[in-house]
Hints:
By secondary structure, the protein is mainly alpha-helical. It has helices spanning about 5-35, 55-70, 70-75; strands at about 50-55, 85-90. The chain folds into 2 domains: about 1-30; about 50-90, no CATH class.
Amino acid sequence: MNTRKPIAIVAAMLITAAGMTGIANYSNAAAAAAQQPGNASVQIIPTLPTINVSPTPEQLRELRDQGAKGGASAANGNDARMPYYSFASDEAGA
């Protein structure tokens, strides 16, 4: 049997394993460096702005109660208003 073939196969496997280990170590080190914050004392927490929805459920109940008390006369007066929904953000200054 030719002894050079098994030696060449083992050498190729060792070279491949060493290359793959080097690539894995390099990528892990790059990922760890990218995850470290610049200033460890400052923690940035991304959050969405607060959304205020109006009318609130209490306002809707109040409008419903006003409509039930007034009957047809409330439909003609200023008390019967169609509720609108506003999705205002605190950051927009609304």
